[in-house]
Amino acid sequence: MKICLINPRFPLSLWDFSLCRDIDGSRFPFPPLPLATLAALTPAGHEITVCDENIGPLDLNIQADVVGITGYHAQKERVYELAGIFQAMGATVAIGGPIVRADNLEECAQHANAVFLGEAEYTWPQFIRDFEAKIIKPFYIQDTFVDMKDSPAPRFDLLDFKAYSSAVIETSRGCPHSCEFCAIPVRLGKGSRTKSTGQVMAEIYALHKLGADSIFIIDDNFLGNRKRAVELLAEIGRFAESIDYGVYFSCQFTIDTARDEEMLGLLEKANFRRVFIGIETPRKESLAAAKKNQNTRVDLLEAVRRIQARNIIVWGAFIVGFDGDDKNIFEEQFRFIQAAAIPVAMLGILQAIPGTPLYERLKAEGRLLKDGTGGITGAADGLLRTNVKLARMGMEELVPGYGRMARNIYGYGNFARRLVAAIKTGSKNGPPGRGNAGSKEIAAVLRLLRYYLLSPDPRRAFMFVRVISQTLIWDPRQLRTALMHLVVYKHLRLFYERTTR
Questions:
Q1: Architecture in CATH of 148-425
Q2: Is the pTM of this model over 0.70?
């Protein structure tokens, strides 16, 4: 049987970094890990192809018995379009991933022969058996959480890693926290379900063998199970040292990790160079109201500095529109982001995601607007929308205030100050974080030089010279970090300029 697994193209979004791919060699940020996992879950004896429309055109004449399509909400239109094309060709189409929720099963079923809700470790193999027996069901629903020990190593061999900026692995699912606006505890459970250390290290070794020099651990809270995290980080540290730090890592964890010196030390020794943290807001009353209690237990500025002192650059997620927010929040967020030296700040407007405690509360209060889930997807066409009737601001204050904040944060001088400060916060005594620059990287650096130094805007060229010169003076080993951020900056500046004007 021929099986084709498809990741549809994303529209322009905050997360796709499409506006800097001309510098980065047209590389998409991450490969479609869920599809590689589905391939590993498929019983032996079938011909499997993974197609990612984000790295090249999709062959719409592919002959397949089964076409599996995954997607996020931002990809919905393309998911349905592709499903219709392949159904018309006679293929059996299955749709799954975050796009499928309990409240839209019937909508998805209008476009597919089989719809998958929840994790697929048990339901996908059952679907393949049902297909072979010609008894497929319209819905495959996983209503309990799977044991992560049953999640196999993904079929990395089916992915073209040269087309991506970083490799990706998943070591755990779920989060022990209860943030009111977050869907993770609802979708993946409270607590932390983990793969064994042996499972994770086998995947890391496999990726290194395939040539990966950067691995992003995609877990929503990588350190959710501290005991397992300590054991795993010790193993990753030994691996990193054994290959002379030729692979660096990035991940997501919560800001209260800054209080754990042992954990920070393990992360540094394991060559973790970047972390994405949901900081949300500097207003503690808003954090407490949103039940993001882990952020109220630390001094946020000091916490960011403690992490960055370990040569781990902090990227942050920020939200405006909490019940306690008024028109002054935009300047307050800007001042905090500058003071914390967070070079990459992902800026969002509060959204109520179906199924979350926030959604249920606002529904009961009659404060839900009929506007989808707006900018929660990061898509450009929804960035300035919300499905929440804000408590202390109208859209006439929210939209221009958000736009001014975003453009200010990504002004040339403000970004340069944050990036240089973040690099200088780091220690000169950490792991070297080496990596061999290949021909594609050298070509990307040349394109980066052309973009900045041959710019008609002298401010752009000045910013580039300022960042590079100060990085070289402080610690030449951080040059790669500086260059990567200058690539990403192009996308972020253009994205926010286009979407907020």
A1: Alpha-Beta Horseshoe (3.80)
A2: yes
